[in-house]
Design brief:
Strand content: 25-35%
Oligomer: single chain
Number of strands: 24
Radius of gyration: 27 Å
Distance between the termini: 108 Å
Length: 495
């Protein structure tokens, strides 16, 4: 009798454990298998994940740090928050120009940074909401791709979990490039992350690199009272922009007191206590100057996050620190894809998002429109703002085009004059034989909000005369587009 009772208890426990094991096994399998896993939750990664889920795929996104990626947490969004603070500070300091009496004000960099971080946090929560709303699983940890459509994810405690998906998209982005002549210590020689969260306002700063990142930080710090020296290796600052745009921004920067050095390079930085001794070579004159400052900001570009990602073991091809992909972002290994900064092309948030949608739609069996890399807008959020699309005048001529160039300066704009910000212009580069808009270059207040109109026109084959033929509202900054096109044909009324 006792043996029977013991046997029954043993059998009951065994069956219960077996049942629990089956449930646990089922739950693990359900958790670990997906149609699509995206590595990285930046503007490429989270867009890919949301789009895939909307198209019926069981989707997960792996993120090792902050949901929303670098752009949202340490790039595009928080920098714009800082720049807005600088703009408000400048407006108050020049309020007398608008008939408003105001007491002298001081820039509180701590409060500005706090506001910037708050904006980034709000947007990160917004992305988290989008992922949850679209039933995308968020897996926190560091991913490593493996053969046979698998990845390992290591969490903060060092635990490794294997996941499997039919399709895997790599969207791990990029980080600040470290130069041998400027080894970053995070305190005196810094990158863009530290520039976003400086705990003090330096008296002086050398910014090396005048692309969008370098120019925006140079403008911000100069605006709040830091003496900035901006150093650019190329013959002009904003080297990807039209020569006229670069010249305008050089004038605007110098007018606010910034020192601008193009055709120059930072040879070395010697840190002596709280002072950085920066040796800068003027390559045109072949001379060197020494500039002392409190902080050196290295903004010489970015490098892709591909280390320890398992690409070699998986057989994924890399060329010049970029993953090689086809027109739909498929790598050389079936089932593995890459988008954003880790592939060749402009390292821009909106480009990564466009690539994400194209990639996912192709995975879903559609025939998406390819990303048109000849029609990518670029924006720099300084004052005056810079926005452009298409060819510069120089590149259009080098391409053998016979061009017409039209300019309209905002000094002749009623809206710009009323707003008190007349620096800048609209420049149109037009094919003389076909009336095609080869390029558009904008420099002025709020032009980053205007460039999309030209991008849309170019994408849909509208000619310059068709754009100018549409009635533009007055008084607006946007009517300068119409005026610039008319100027190209010698028909400007106000220019």
């Amino acid at each position: 009798m006792k043996i029977s009772i013991i046997f029954c208890i043993f059998a009951s426990c065994f069956l219960q454990n077996l049942s629990n094991n089956k449930i646990n096994k089922y739950q693990i399998l359900n958790k670990m298998n997906y149609d699509l896993i995206v590595i990285g939750s930046g503007p490429g990664g989270y867009v890919a994940a949301v789009k895939a889920s909307q198209m019926g795929m069981k989707t997960a996104v792996v993120e090792r740090e902050n949901v929303g990626g670098i752009c949202l947490n340490w790039g595009c969004i928080p920098t714009k928050a800082l720049l807005k603070s600088a703009q408000v500070f400048n407006y108050i300091n020049h309020s007398a120009n608008y008939g408003v009496a105001a007491q002298p004000v001081e820039a509180d960099i701590t409060a500005m940074v706090q506001r910037s971080r708050g904006v980034a946090e709000t947007m990160s929560k917004g992305v988290q909401f989008l992922l949850k709303k679209n039933n995308v699983d968020v897996i926190m940890g560091t991913a490593k791709v493996k053969p046979e459509h698998k990845i390992d994810v290591t969490d903060a405690e060092g635990n490794v979990t294997e996941y499997e998906a039919q399709h895997i998209i790599i969207a791990t982005g990029a980080r600040s490039r470290v130069m041998p002549s400027m080894p970053q210590d995070g305190k005196r020689i810094i990158g863009y992350r530290e520039a976003l969260t400086l705990p003090f306002k330096p008296k002086s700063m050398v910014v090396c690199g005048s692309g969008a990142i370098g120019s925006e930080f140079a403008f911000f710090y100069q605006s709040i009272g830091v003496q900035v020296t901006l150093v650019e290796f190329m013959p002009q600052i904003l080297p990807n922009e039209d020569e006229d745009t670069a010249a305008q921004i050089s004038r605007s920067f110098r007018k606010m007191g910034m020192k601008v050095m193009a055709n120059a390079s930072v040879e070395k930085v010697d840190v002596d206590g709280d002072i950085c001794h920066v040796t800068i070579k003027d390559m045109k004159k072949n001379t060197e100057v020494m500039v002392d400052c409190d902080v050196v900001l290295s903004a010489v570009g970015v490098i892709t996050n591909l280390e320890n990602l398992g690409l070699e073991e998986t057989g994924i091809q890399v060329e010049r620190t970029k993953i090689v992909v086809d027109d739909y972002y498929q790598t050389n290994v079936p089932g593995y894809y890459a988008i954003g900064d880790v592939v060749h092309g402009p390292a821009l948030a909106h480009v990564a998002s466009a690539e994400a949608i194209c990639c996912v739609e192709k995975i879903a069996g559609h025939e998406p429109k390819l990303v048109n890399y000849s029609n990518i807008p670029g924006c720099t959020y300084i004052t005056p703002e810079v926005a452009s699309v298409g060819l510069t005048e120089k590149k259009a001529v080098e391409a053998g085009k016979e061009v017409l160039v039209g300019k309209f300066f905002f000094k002749a704009s009623g809206k710009a004059t009323a707003a008190g910000n007349t620096d800048g212009f609209i420049k149109m580069v037009i094919d003389k034989n076909t009336d095609e808009i080869l390029g558009c270059h904008m420099c002025g207040d709020n032009v980053t909000e205007m460039i999309a109109g030209i991008v849309t026109a170019r994408e849909n084959g509208l000619t310059a005369k068709q754009v100018a033929g549409a009635i533009h509202p007055h008084p607006t900054m946007s009517e300068a587009v119409m005026e610039a096109i008319e100027a190209a044909y010698g028909q400007a009324i106000h220019g």
